Amino acid sequence: ELSGMWLAGLRDCCRCPRLVAYRQSIPARAPHRPQDYHNAPVAGFGDEQARIWLIGLAPGAQGANRTGRPFTGDGAGDFMYPLLHEAGLCSQPLATAADDGLRLHDLYISNAVRCVPPANRPTTAEFQACQRYLQQEWQRLPCLRVVLALGRESFLNLLRLQQQSHVLRLADYPFSHACCYRLPTGHWLLGSYHTSRYNLNTGRIDAAAFRQVLDLARKLAAR
Ligand code: DU
Ligand code: SF4
């Protein structure tokens, strides 16, 4: 049985034809045992009483798309989970497989787009199609205080989702690392550079910079 919060319609979702086709093209070149290979929409997971919600961009081909759990099994997760553990937000520093026993504390994790995109770049239409699942999660996290979006695209997507129910101007919410805003709903919205391999290699984000936003998220959640 797959771990995660299974939302209505997610398991068999095929609203994005480009992503479904891409997925079908991957297994041939993925060097993994077929029975271990997720290769499907990836559900969010974590503490359903969480005050903090971390939203990434989309599953990585060697990470979540392979293991079936966000940020599990690739470089972004190898960077992130030890820092989440240091911050007291998860039970162990290593995230290797969906059944590795890792649990999140006061934290829930999902991605803006739930199917692996070519070159890690979802289209605007794909962000939009997948907003329905963010919406469902929002309704199923009753203790939510802080939304932490990784990367400008995930951050903007969250604002656009808010625009469906509230009047807000994107220009009032410029993105930068560790940016912090109060949303019309009363929730805090934080932005962070994404913990992608590219950003890590180029030094755009490092452990101290990510810990900074985690500490800010924890402080705002407790406020
Ligand atoms: O059925 P379950 O996924 O083991 O979750 C039971 C319980 O634990 C539920 O209230 C969510 C919470 N939880 C958690 O705190 N952290 C996790 O990573 C997964 C589940
Ligand atoms: Fe469905 Fe989201 Fe996957 Fe598109 S990305 S097919 S909306 S689960």
Mind telling me the C-alpha Rg?
A: 16 Å
Mean pLDDT: 93
Strand content: 5-15%
Which compounds are bound in this model?
Answer: 2'-deoxyuridine-5'-monophosphate, iron/sulfur cluster
Number of helices: 7
Overall helicity: 25-40%
Task: State the name of the first-level CATH class.
Answer: Alpha Beta
Overall body shape = globular
The CATH topology assignment is Uracil-DNA Glycosylase, subunit E
Offer a quick outline of the entry.
By secondary structure, this protein is an alpha/beta fold. 34% of the residues lie in helices and 11% in strands. Helix 3 (75-86) packs across helix 7.
What does this entry look like structurally?
By secondary structure, the chain is of the alpha/beta class. It has a single domain, classed as Uracil-DNA Glycosylase, subunit E, CATH 3.40.470. Helix content is 34%, strand content 11%. The chain has helices at 17-25, 64-67, 75-86, 124-140, 152-163, 197-201, 207-222, and strands at 45-46, 52-56, 107-111, 146-150, 180-182, 188-192. Strands 1-3-2-4-6-5 form a six-stranded mixed β-sheet. The longest helix is centred in the middle third of the chain and has 17 residues, at 124-140. It is globular, with a radius of gyration of 16 Å. It binds 2'-deoxyuridine-5'-monophosphate (DU) and iron/sulfur cluster. The site of 2'-deoxyuridine-5'-monophosphate has 6 residues, from β1.
